[in-house]
Specification:
Blueprint: E1 20-22, E2 25-27, H1 30-39, E3 44-48, H2 51-60, E4 83-87, H3 95-104, E5 110-114, H4 115-120, E6 141-143, H5 150-166, H6 175-183
Amino acid sequence: MARPVQHNTKVKMVEIPKGYSGEGFFATTFDKAIGAARKNSIWPLPFATSCCGIEFMATAASHYDLARFGAERMAFTPRQCDLLMVMGTIAKKMGPVLRQVYLQMAEPRWVIAVGACASSGGVFDTYSVLQGIDQVIPVDVYVPGCPPRPEAILDGFMRIQELVGQESLRRRHSERYKDLMNSYGIQ
């Protein structure tokens, strides 16, 4: 006879954000409200060229289910996305194309470099392979691995969510951000 499975019944409660609450209402800052909306509705643009793309497909499939993070809508047009997920080997000839895709995305936009090849060129230390996409576009999160497991990709996605949720609405207008964009030749 099979034994019943014991489940942990402790449920972790999420902390209420700082704000003012009363009977039937809750007030908080505009930054926090916008951050919560952006954090839970990220639209990724997969830019997959190699084996990391296959691992990403597993991440989006039912077993790992990227949709539970509010990212079920994959779009393959940069004008409708706010997260560029670069996965795989990027040849130097592909660098300008990747940069153009990044520039076509509307602000605010974020970038994840998935796998060793997108992060640092991987094992391909040759004249034709870009040694990290951060040579052509700014990167927010690096996911290590060759190829990274779906759990690692999900961890990178959750780190992007943290960054998006805590980002000030004025950060994109700061001098530091403008200097970063200028260092990449982006106006």
